Amino acid sequence: MNNNFDVIILIGRPAAGKSEVIDFLKKTPASERSNRFHINEFEEIDDFVYVWETFEIDDILTKNGKARIWSDEKYWFKDPFIWNLYIERISLTYRKKIAVDQNYHQKMTTIVEFARGGENGFSEAFSYLHEDLLKRACIIYIKVPYEESVRKNRRRARPGMEDSILYHSLPDEKMEYYYKTNDWEKLTATDQNYIKIKGINVPYAAFENMPEKTDDPAKLGDELERVTKKLWSVLKK
Prior knowledge:
Blueprint: E1 7-12, H1 18-26, H2 30-37, E2 42-46, H3 47-63, H4 82-100, H5 104-107, E3 109-114, H6 121-127, H7 131-134, E4 137-143, H8 146-156, H9 172-179, H10 184-187, E5 194-197, E6 200-208, H11 217-235
Parallel strand pairs: 1-3, 1-4, 2-3, 4-6
Antiparallel strand pairs: 5-6
């Protein structure tokens, strides 16, 4: 029997600590990663890659005298459906992997990463994930308040590295517009173990990152172990 998660949906506010968790896992020896966290060799599907690609495409169109499609010159999205398009792309990327190799999850864990805000941000995003992904998934939410997200978002900014997974940053006005609120507490108010998505009970757990743990590998590892142990026990019920 596979002793590792098939799919982990890693979510939270921007700069909450998602990328730091993935960076920690990359640096963890494979045997420890599997035995301690039930995470195999893994591949990431991070929608920030798609976001940045959108901006690059629109900039190329501008350079060539064509109309921008999805964003204006200040990189505000014209149509909010773009957020759901990114989720559809995540699902498509994942389904291609398992279509090519039916034994994919015998050797690989998939980590899906995204941030969402707004009154129904996570709920709407989840509704666009394909059932092939959801039925194999668990959710880890990196929990920090909005103010901490803003602080860490400012801290991680590195000029010239705006396309970096670890060091990209949002202007304060976009943080407030897109992410000041989210619906995590509402989604998890009625069940301590599962979020029902498209009729599928998806196990979840919250990684408590206050006070900050993702800046200390020892603390990060201990909290991640607590979270994945809980998820594994729920998954195997």
